Amino acid sequence: MPPHDERYRYSQEWFDIVNSAWSNSKPFNHNGKYWQLKDVLTEPLPNRKPTIVNAGGSGEGKAFAIRNADLLFTVASDLKKSEPEVADLKAKAKVEGRNGGLLTPIMIICRPTEEEAKDFFKYYGENHLDSAAAEFIVEGLIADANTFPRDVLEGLRKKFGSIYGSHTIIGTPRQVAGELYNVEKAGFDGGAIAFVDYIKEFPYFRDEVLPLLEEAGLRRPVQRS
């Protein structure tokens, strides 16, 4: 696999080709560093430019997303630290002439009481943590992870093994709604919400949290049939 930054240069050339294919009604040639193509043609052309969503964590990854994506995903493990970073990313996107949204992955553990929510997090995130899978994730995402101090490495394994690095909200419906408000206040335009068991947990979130978000003006009311 090419070095980290080289992969983004490779991807940029590929994405430039794709953009050209989306906008050219006649065949074109491309002679670049990584790609040499002849008579490139896409049929049918898209009715409008497809929405591009890209996740970026490293500096180069975020720069790539700012240049090319309509929606950028980035992790917000600490909302206070994220606020200036979000403002900086949006300012850089504006310089590039882009006004897309900034999103973050969010893990939600919502229960009738705070104690129940915390107990469940401990149950699946600590007592039944898949250590082998967590180690595989950390090694895949972080180069030279095994050179980190043991306590730091163990913390990363727990974090990625239980919540995959996402911003985590644990609590009652009102606490969850309040923390989602804080996500919006930090400058994020939305989030990709995840649950440990989506089928079992989403109905409770839908019935107990979504109405609170509508009351707070964070969600547009939906006409229920």
From TrEMBL:
GO molecular function: monooxygenase activity; oxidoreductase activity, acting on paired donors, with incorporation or reduction of molecular oxygen
Domain Luciferase-like: 3-189
Coiled-coil ranges (or none): none
Keywords noted in UniProt: Flavoprotein, FMN, Monooxygenase, Oxidoreductase
Keyword Oxidoreductase (UniProt): yes
The protein's name in its UniProt record: Luciferase-like domain-containing protein
Native organism: Pseudocercospora musae
Lineage: Eukaryota, Fungi, Dikarya, Ascomycota, Pezizomycotina
